[in-house]
Amino acid sequence: MRDIRQYFDLITGLAESSGAESVELDFDPVDQASGDVDGAFYFYDGSRLEFTETVAIEKQSPKKLSYRYQFIHQEKTRFRYDNADHHPKLPNHPHHKHVGAKIVTAIEPMLSQVLDEVRDILDQTKNQLPAKPKRRRR
Question: Which has the closest alpha carbon to 117: 57, 58, 69, 52?
């Protein structure tokens, strides 16, 4: 990867293949080798994945300086990954995941992995929808 625009193209490709009903992306290059991207993926059931990344291209590879991926499902935050420096006792500090009120250790995820996790949740909840009641004959 030569520059930040190639990374932005990678994110655009993920958006196009995400399965989301709509996607908002905002790219802000700082210089040729770094920039910010933020956006949201909106899914069929009203849920959304919001994210921000600050990325620098180092040795032809993207390095995330900061990130946040937050999945909101049924109007509640289902999970959030981030690398904010506020849980120093976790083994993979600063990487962590918020799940409800719990904070658990995590590795730095890629956006594609987070999208896979979202799709898994959506598939599970789709299969848990109550069956439509059958009409009784009168």
Answer: 69
* CA atoms of 59 and 1, how far apart (whole Å): 8
Supply the pLDDT for residue 129.
53
**pTM of the predicted model, to two decimals?**
0.89
**Cβ–Cβ under 8 Å, residues 83 and 69:** no
Separation of alpha carbons 81 and 109, rounded Å: 8
Concatenated DSSP letters of 7-37: HHHHHHHHHHTS--SEEEEEEEEEETTEEEE
> Which one-letter DSSP state was computed for residue 77?
E
**Mind listing the pLDDT tens digit for each residue in 47-98?**
999 999 999 999 999 999 999 999 999 999 999 999 999 888 999 999 999 9
